[in-house]
Amino acid sequence: MAFEKIKGHLKNINGIVNIINSKEIPSSFLFCGKEGVGKLTIAKEFAKISLCKSKINNEDFLSFDSNDGLDCPGCESCRMFELGVHPDFLLVDFNYQAGLLGEKVSEQKSIGIDTVREAVKFSNLKPSFCFRKFIVINDAEKMTVEAQNSLLKTLEEPFEGTTIILVSSSSNKLLPTILSRCYKLVFNRLSQSAVMDILAEKGYEIKRAELLSEISEGSVSLAFKYEKVLQMFEENAQKPYIAPFLITSKLSKTEDFREGAVTVLNFINSFLYFKMKNYNNTDKITKAIKENFKYMNYLKHNVNTRLVLSAALYKFFSEFDFFKQGAVL
Ligand SMILES: [Zn+2]
Q1: Model confidence over 263-303: pLDDT tens digits?
Q2: Residue 173 belongs to what domain range?
Q3: Are 302 and 227 in a shared domain?
Q4: Which of 19, 102, 146, 220 lies deepest, with the highest CB count within 10 Å?
Q5: Which helix (H) or strand (E) holds 264?
Q6: Among 159, 187, 215, which residue terminates a domain?
Q7: β-pairing, 183-187 with 162-168?
């Protein structure tokens, strides 16, 4: 992966390339924007390129001759980065914290102060392989207030050559004191064609990629979630009367049942809007969307998830034959 292979976000990527070329990389960044648009991918690429040995043409810093030569033929630094073992790069997330605590990733609900203290310790060490160090904190809004406070001093006066990138899809949950210390880059939703290209590259058939990219609001991670919903619907397509109960039962065994149910109801809505384009009975679809909103509202008000989901699915499966006929794809 290199910047030229990343879809969308051209303005931000050009900005980052200019920053790298200027040899003055700010010490703290905030990459914010909707979930699943590529913020973390770009943050990691930023770090990887900045640490790349083949880009270094003088003793103390890296430099690019031009913006088009960003792809490295495979230096030791890039290879270590790809393997996830680069000594001058730290990714702080639930995986990292679970490793520190000897717990399961699924048990992590927030990023705690001890985890951030480890990151601060890392930031205070001299780089061991390159001339710089990068720390990326993913889902930074999950840091507790204590954890955020413990990061303030490092954000303000980091060890020379250390850059910290906070990645967040809910930056409004970060303390104003954190926000004011970071150089902010906003990542907008991806275009439908960018999401479609990404899905096609991952091997999705064109029709499938088209549907998912149309309904996923410019978010690749949402497209992946909707793909799972589609698969569940398709698996049960031949048994529409029991499908609602089979799907509800399967989802109820997952870790966050309620969130799963919300995703399914959101999928139904987006899917119906998509189908409205070439379905002759638009009144029927409009009515179904209104019904679905009613179920979404029930979920918001904590009505029993199992009841709401199976009722919504029953309504959807019994009124439309999109899946029965295999007409989706
Ligand atoms: Zn390299």
Answers
A1: 999 999 999 999 888 777 888 899 999 999 999 999 999 89
A2: 3-187
A3: yes
A4: 220
A5: helix 257-276
A6: 187
A7: unpaired
